[in-house]
Amino acid sequence: MFATPAFAQAAGSAGATSALTSFVPLILIFGIMYFILIRPQQKKVKEHKAMVEAVRRGDQVVTQGGILGKVTKVKDDGEVEVEIAEGVRVRVIRSTISQVISKTEPAS
């Protein structure tokens, strides 16, 4: 049951290296979490931002609320005017556009 003095002395000398080796798995976990969770999410946010910035008049869009409509006016202050039915126009914040269904080509 009791540790002999020889075993107690041998365990004390490896204290500095065991502290370093105990942090290696923690560092590996953070590295794996970065590449599995954080990096793909950042990429997705960047793609969404680029999509929202490229929205122009005539595009068919879906908002986060599930409303389908056609962009009739793009304003500079982060708003877009979307026509959801004939004669019914709604102002929508750009960042709430979740998907662009069909894009229009710029006039040449």
From TrEMBL:
Localization per record: Cell membrane
Alphabetical list of InterPro entries matching this protein: Preprotein_translocase_YajC
Top-level taxon: Bacteria
A biological process from GO: protein transport
GO CC list: plasma membrane
Protein's name according to its UniProt entry: Sec translocon accessory complex subunit YajC
Transmembrane stretches, start-end: 20-38
Quaternary structure and partners: Part of the SecDF-YidC-YajC translocase complex. The SecDF-YidC-YajC translocase forms a supercomplex with SecYEG, called the holo-translocon (HTL).
Name of the gene this protein is made from: YajC
Main location as per UniProt: membrane
Function, as annotated: The SecYEG-SecDF-YajC-YidC holo-translocon (HTL) protein secretase/insertase is a supercomplex required for protein secretion, insertion of proteins into membranes, and assembly of membrane protein complexes. While the SecYEG complex is essential for assembly of a number of proteins and complexes, the SecDF-YajC-YidC subcomplex facilitates these functions.
Keywords of the record: Cell membrane, Membrane, Protein transport, Translocation, Transmembrane, Transmembrane helix, Transport
One Pfam family in the UniProt entry: YajC
Topology in membrane: Single-pass membrane protein
Family the UniProt entry places it in: Belongs to the YajC family.
